Amino acid sequence: MITVRKAEPQDFPAIYTLMKNELGYPNLREADTFKRLEFFSSSDDWETFVALTGGEAVGFIGVTKCLAYNIDGYYTQIMAMAVSEKLQGSGIGTALVKKAEEWSMSHGITGIYVSSNIKRSSAHAFYEKNGYINSKQSYMFIKSIDIPEMMDFCIQRLEGIDNDKELNLPASYNTQMENAGKDKEFLSRTLNCANDFSVIDGETDC
């Protein structure tokens, strides 16, 4: 029997493992993933659901509310979904998508979007089977705009070292960094996102 419910902190290790193994993020850091999941859990705009069989979390889906310039109102974006490889094809993915759609409808949102890597042909077939239409094919371009000085700044601040050196960044960003002061959450997020651009092939989960 498949049960789908909101993710709880005890599910975080299973979600981390699914992301690392099934979605192909071998360099994903466990502690950072847990922090992100905690943030998502505290936000009304995000939700993470897990699928359980025999009390074990074997799949998850994460959704968020979004706005766009070209459409009115909110739409829902499926940000991540994974099912344990040994149980794929058993209805777990469909149950997760249905729960995401229920969540979307409960927020008055009728449009739901999902992006899938062009190489994931099995995922494409899954979504089409569940009524999703392949509306377009596109490229994602990513540029990391961090510089070594910024990363050193974050590391030193996290270690409790005051560093008043002005960074070689646009004035507005220098101000943002200085205003952050010793805000460890901000500094960690800045550093981790910069790192993620270099360790994830073609995608980033920042």
Strand content: 15-25%
Sheet/helix structural class: alpha+beta
N-to-C span: 34 Å
- Number of extended strands: 5
CATH superfamily of the largest domain: Gcn5-related N-acetyltransferase (GNAT)
* Count of the domains: 2
CATH class of the largest domain: Alpha Beta
CATH architecture of the largest domain: 3-Layer(aba) Sandwich
Total count of helical runs of at least 4 residues = 7
Describe the oligomeric state of these chains in a short phrase.
Answer: single chain
**Poorly predicted runs of 5 or more residues:** 193-206
Largest sheet: number of strands, sense, barrel closure = 5 strands, mixed
Query: The CATH topology of the largest domain is what?
Result: Aminopeptidase
Query: What gross morphology would you assign?
Result: globular
Q: Can you list the strand order of the major beta sheet?
A: 1-2-3-4-5
Helix content: 40-55%
List keywords for this structure.
206 residues, Aminopeptidase, disordered C terminus
Summarize the structure.
The protein is of the alpha+beta class and 206 residues long.
Protein described:
The chain has about 210 residues and is an alpha+beta fold. It is built from 7 helices and 5 strands; from the N terminus they run E-H-H-E-E-E-H-E-H-H-H-H. The protein has 2 domains: about 5-130, Gcn5-related N-acetyltransferase (GNAT) (Aminopeptidase, 3-Layer(aba) Sandwich), CATH 3.40.630.30; about 150-200, no CATH class. It has helices at about 10-20, 30-40, 90-105, 120-130, 150-160, 170-180, 185-200; strands at about 5, 45-55, 55-65, 75-85, 110-115. Strands 1-2-3-4-5 form a 5-stranded mixed beta sheet, sandwiched between helices. Strand 4, helix 3 and strand 5 form a beta-alpha-beta unit.
